[in-house]
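Sequence, please.
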């Protein structure tokens, strides 16, 4: 039996984004192992179905001693479990797991799910990470990108070889879980929802400012935030700060949820004013539930939202423009919002079905195992 390892920097990510891929691999006859930092909430959930090994990834920093230890821990683990193919996601697993896997003769498939803070604000760290990617690309066998802009950037800067790459539709969306529900009882309330980790780079401040300004003109709106605080990221907001910011109307912080569809069901529009994305899963899930979208006209988001058709695109880091797009949603009738949402649903069915993304991974794995000796 061939062993496939799935390596990500959080167990939350495995549980929320890669569980269906892991299940499909298991059904195909592979032995599936999940690797991520231990999480008291999500690790036990994953362990109900799969073997789980805890490896620490220092997502916030660039401490060379910690990173060397991570590579060593991965190497020791791979010597023990003997994976045939390792699927890596997020920056440090893409880099360090690839090196460790190469040392034990395992093949790797890396996924660039988004370029993150280090690419949004160029710095010495950005240059260093690019050089690491350039070296690592010579060791890996396949690189998936979640949008064509990131793929073209990596190819143009010669961080990867064009023959290695393939663009897929993000992580896709589970259309059996996310589907339209009946509209709530008719009322005048309009609910805007931001679903994301509470990071500055997700446009949280812009959403809060736009919401408060819009409320002065339209007191029947509500603006909700759903997602984790205090995560390992340089731009993370603390729970105390989020709660303080959400003390004023019309804002409400909902915390985290493993049943995001139950919250999406109650929203009239989903907003993501992010500075840069791979392909944002929150927008895919919202569109699959026939919700109109508002997102920034930036990498990743602009591929999902068709301006004026499935939602609206606003300027990046511009709370005034975001407010104007939210106002357009408020001024629509319920039927108009539903029509916009239904067009987004059709787009999800045609281009973002999770099953198609999973098929891309299965095809790549089989090519490595059986045709690329």
């Amino acid at each position: 039996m061939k062993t496939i390892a799935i390596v990500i920097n959080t167990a939350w990510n495995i549980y929320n984004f890669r569980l269906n891929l892991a299940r499909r691999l298991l059904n195909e006859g592979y032995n599936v192992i999940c690797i991520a930092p231990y999480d008291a909430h999500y690790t036990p959930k994953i362990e109900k179905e799969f073997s789980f090994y805890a490896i620490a990834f220092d997502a916030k920093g660039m401490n060379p001693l910690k990173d060397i230890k991570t590579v060593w821990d991965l190497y020791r683990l791979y010597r023990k479990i003997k994976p045939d193919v390792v699927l890596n996601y997020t920056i440090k697993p893409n880099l360090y797991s690839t090196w460790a896997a190469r040392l034990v003769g395992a093949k790797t498939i890396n996924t660039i799910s988004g370029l993150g803070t280090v690419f949004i604000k160029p710095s010495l760290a950005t240059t260093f990470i690019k050089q690491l990617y350039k070296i690592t690309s010579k060791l890996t066998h396949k690189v998936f990108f979640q949008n064509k802009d990131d793929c073209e950037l990596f190819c143009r800067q010669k961080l990867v070889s064009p023959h290695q790459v393939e663009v897929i539709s993000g992580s896709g969306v589970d259309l059996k879980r996310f589907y339209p529900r009946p509209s709530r009882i008719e009322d005048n309330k309009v609910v805007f929802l931001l679903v994301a980790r509470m990071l500055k780079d997700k446009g949280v401040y812009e959403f809060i400012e736009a919401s408060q300004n819009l409320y002065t003109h339209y007191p029947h709106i509500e603006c909700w935030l759903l997602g984790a605080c205090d995560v390992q990221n340089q731009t993370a907001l603390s729970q105390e700060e989020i709660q303080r910011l959400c003390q004023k109307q019309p804002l409400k912080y909902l915390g985290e949820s493993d049943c995001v569809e139950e919250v999406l069901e109650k929203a009239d529009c989903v907003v993501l004013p992010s500075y840069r994305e791979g392909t944002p899963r929150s927008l895919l899930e919202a569109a699959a539930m026939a919700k109109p979208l508002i997102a920034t006209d930036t990498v990743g988001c602009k591929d999902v939202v068709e301006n004026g058709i499935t939602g609206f695109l606003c300027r990046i880091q511009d709370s005034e423009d975001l407010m104007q797009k939210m106002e357009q949603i408020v001024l629509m009738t319920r039927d108009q919002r539903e029509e916009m949402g239904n067009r987004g649903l059709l787009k999800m069915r045609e281009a973002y079905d999770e099953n198609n993304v999973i098929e891309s991974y299965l095809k790549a794995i089989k090519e490595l195992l059986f045709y690329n000796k």
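The CA atoms of residues 183 and 265 lie 8 Å apart.
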